[in-house]
Amino acid sequence: MTDPRQFKAPYNPKERIWQEADRLRAGHPAGRSLPVRVLDLAEFDLGLDLIPADGLREQLDIEALLMGDLRSILVDRHAFISPRLEYRLRFSVAHEIGHLVLHRDIYGGLKHATAKEWFDYISAIPEVEYGWVEWQAYEFAGRLLVPPETLRAAFQTAIQTAEAAGYADWLAADEAALDYIATRVAPKFGVSAEVIAKRLRVERLWPPT
What we know:
Layout: H1 14-26, H2 38-45, E1 49-53, H3 56-60, E2 64-66, E3 72-76, H4 77-81, H5 86-102, H6 104-110, H7 115-122, H8 127-145, H9 148-164, H10 175-189, H11 193-202
Parallel strand pairs: 1-3
Antiparallel strand pairs: 2-3
Helix pairs in contact: 1-8, 5-8, 9-10, 10-11
């Protein structure tokens, strides 16, 4: 392993992240329906082992972790079996797939065999550098699970529903209006309303023009 204090995040502009996520989604059967079948994508299309592990969420505040062998992802056992945590687990697995696609050299170079080894290493990485790596994987996961064309169509439908319900002033584009729209769109994609709100902003659909 390299000295974590010397760690430098790779440069991955948003356009490249989007391109990689779109390519992966379009290139595999599990990515061609909604919600994206991200666990099937990981296990059957990418050949990754999903290994339930105790305590990931409680001890490290994560639901999933790509291992250094690049062939397996640890998933929090409780999140894996709890319907209440389904959306979080789906996004976390998509996030780890993002690391596999964008940061293969980093994770393969760590050779971490346990979650603790990974945590000990990343804890010593400069916060700004690790923040960039995490942002890249977060952006990948959002784009993978929320295709922009479908989001745009769902957004327009939600607008029409809101207007039909009498929310004539919703175009004020305040946080309450955004939450109203995101909450109604989210189930189609199998993600949280917070993820949809973020994608609407990133894809420049919100605030509406």
